[in-house]
Design goal:
By secondary structure, this protein is α/β, with parallel strands linked by helices. It folds into two domains: about 160 residues, 2-Layer Sandwich (Nucleotidyltransferase, domain 5); about 170 residues, 2-Layer Sandwich (Nucleotidyltransferase, domain 5). Helices cover about 35% and strands about 20% of the residues. It has a six-stranded mixed β-sheet, with helices on both faces. β2 and β3 form a beta hairpin. α8 packs across α10. The structure holds adenosine-5'-triphosphate (ATP) and the ligand CC(=O)N[C@H]1[C@@H]2OC[C@@H](O2)[C@@H](O)[C@@H]1O[C@H](C)C(=O)O. The site of adenosine-5'-triphosphate (ATP) has 22 residues, from loops. The site of adenosine-5'-triphosphate has 22 residues, from loops. This is Anhydro-N-acetylmuramic acid kinase. Its EC number is 2.7.1.170.
Length: about 350
Amino acid sequence: MLALGLMSGTSLDGVDIALVDTDGETVASFGPAATVPYSAEQRLALMEILGGKGAVEQVERDFTLFHAQVVRDFLAEHGIDAAKVGVAGFHGHTILHAPAERRTWQIGDGALLASEIGIAVVNDFRSADVAAGGQGAPLVPVYHRALAARLEGPLAILNLGGVGNVTWISEDGSLLAFDTGPGNALLDDWAMAHTGRPVDVDGALSAAGRVRRDAVEAFLHHTYFDRQPPKSVDRDEFHALAWELVKGCSAEDGAATLTAFTAASVALAAYSFPRPVKRWLVTGGGRRNPEMMSALSRGLSAPVEPVEAVGWNGDALEAQAFAFLAVRSLAGLMLTYPETTGVSSPQTGGRRHVP
Ligand SMILES: Nc1ncnc2c1ncn2[C@@H]1O[C@H](COP(=O)(O)OP(=O)(O)OP(=O)(O)O)[C@@H](O)[C@H]1O
Ligand SMILES: CC(=O)N[C@H]1[C@@H]2OC[C@@H](O2)[C@@H](O)[C@@H]1O[C@H](C)C(=O)O
């Protein structure tokens, strides 16, 4: 089936869209993919409702209509007939994630999107898992496993978006997945405050700074790092501690130290793996930051490469995953497992909306 995936990630950079041909078990082929960036106003509107506060309904409607436009433009640009697309997997945007309280909230009106684009939509991928006692995240591991089927394990696939998450895949395809800690969100917010741009582009700011090693050590005392995986976090979980630790740093030293926080938390994550990996494949925007990639390489004991090394597209991977998960949802296949979200038994998930 031809399936579209739509992802609005925690880094708040925009909507990722991708087309894949899949049966929900394997991927027959990858179609085109794109990222449509948010304007500063859209980013701000989303930031203002993080935590579930403020004008959620209005922002959700605008957000859904923006996704509809993204889909229409994408299909038009690539000459794809909507009637040929079987389903659109619509992640929405996480505005609250508190699995311990059995709450996770992704905004996005599935029924409205389906009627706007004339394609069946699957959304609300995380609720069933959280209701069953799981973390509701990460969800991409089943897609990682499908992609990695022919690669030699054990290997780790690390996604560095706003938050970091890793999928460990053994030689026989068994999984362990969890959020490692911060991805780029701390660095993005620091860069915004000090440079007016929400990204430390190519790690330039970090490259000019010095890492405060004492701060990195203190950062790793956050209680999240004591928890056994599977585990997941909300975007802003580490902000209070991080800001306390880099208080008084120059823009450059702060950026270098925040980059080191992410790399150190990934290195710590490797200690939770059942067996060491042969390689690390990095996806998500963090792989574009050379300072982040060098810090990872220094801290990890296996080679670190972007996923492009094995022919995948690290900008499209999450959107592709939600296309894949939507097809799995329609087919009644499992989306989450005890090893990926800590849920007590494998779970289906997603909610279907017909146009
Ligand atoms: N050239 C670059 N230099 C440095 N950082 C970059 C560059 N390009 C992208 N990034 C980082 O990647 C981030 C976007 O990554 P990505 O799109 O994978 O996140 P996301 O999907 O929104 O998040 P999540 O995976 O947590 O849901 C940006 O916010 C920025 O921090
Ligand atoms: C609750 C939530 O939206 N979590 C995101 C976030 O961004 C990265 C990491 O934290 C991951 O757990 C998840 O996204 C990916 C797509 C996932 O579920 O696999």
